[in-house]
Design a protein that fits this description.
It holds the Pfam family YmdB. By secondary structure, this protein is an alpha/beta fold. It has 6 helices and 14 strands.
């Protein structure tokens, strides 16, 4: 069982890059499933219902999100209706959508996809550790393939959750920083780990945004309207291979083009 996961898709450049490269990457890696974080896919901040359908239409099986998912209100109904998108599970009760889905592949294999958000250097939400416990407790025993997107700022928080979930999930991959980290690992309990998958977007940028605007902001401390960077875009993510019978990860590697 091979799962391709792509980090934060940054606006139209990121969408076009993913659309262009996904067929070849899926074939090259023999991927059975594709997951992508879409929380910045519309204009670099948030996700619209239209772009959600665009991502699903290009071959993404499940969309994960993060703290910017609430930017465009038209996605709220989509979060409730569409079974292939998740938002961070540890938002308080009453938030639209769900924090976990069990996706059934054409082969009949079922994969649980969980979405959590960190609390360090981010807005206060419920505890992601306890939210993970609660979600995992609801899964049938035969759903052994379990993929977690932890949308968080702090490396320490991501590392801690990775160790906390080791042996209980197939993979725990971080998102949010837009910078791919060089620490893919197979933890002792059989969980594939990566601190951050990076982004799909323009590399000649500051996290996908126009670098000159960001530099001016740092130099002057004056507010400037962010704008997506222009130029050649790449894709960043991770490939996780796992035993479909046990759920244990057997291989993990960075994907970067």
């Amino acid at each position: 069982m091979r799962i391709l996961f792509f980090g934060d898709v940054m606006g139209k450049p990121g969408r076009l890059a993913l659309r262009h490269r996904l067929p070849a990457l899926r074939a090259r890696h023999g991927a059975d499933m594709v997951i992508a974080n879409g929380e910045n896919a519309s204009g670099g901040v948030g996700l619209t219902a239209e772009v959600m359908q665009e991502l699903l239409g290009m071959g993404v099986d499940v969309i994960t999100t993060g703290n910017h998912i609430w930017k465009h209100r038209d996605i709220y109904a989509g979060l409730e209706r569409e079974q292939r998108i998740v938002r961070p599970a540890n938002f308080p009760p009453g938030a639209p959508g769900r924090g976990m889905v069990v996706h059934t592949l054409s082969s009949g294999v079922r994969v649980a996809v969980l979405n959590l958000q960190g609390r360090t250097f981010m807005e206060e939400v419920d505890c992601p550790f306890r939210a993970a416990d609660a979600l995992l407790a609801t899964l049938p025993e035969d759903v052994v393939l379990r993929f977690v997107d932890f949308h968080a700022e702090a490396t320490s928080e991501k590392k801690a959750l990775g160790w906390y979930l080791d042996g209980r999930v197939t993979a725990m991959v971080g998102t949010h920083t837009h910078v791919q980290t060089a620490d893919p690992a197979l933890l002792p309990g059989g969980t594939a780990y990566l601190t951050d998958a990076g982004m799909c977007g323009v590399e000649d940028s500051c996290l996908g945004m126009d670098k000159d605007i960001i530099i001016r902001r740092f130099l002057t401390r004056m507010p400037h309207r962010f704008a997506l960077a222009k130029g050649n875009a790449g894709v960043n993510g991770v490939l996780v291979e796992a035993d479909a019978h046990t759920g244990r990860a057997t291989h993990v590697e960075l994907v970067r083009e």
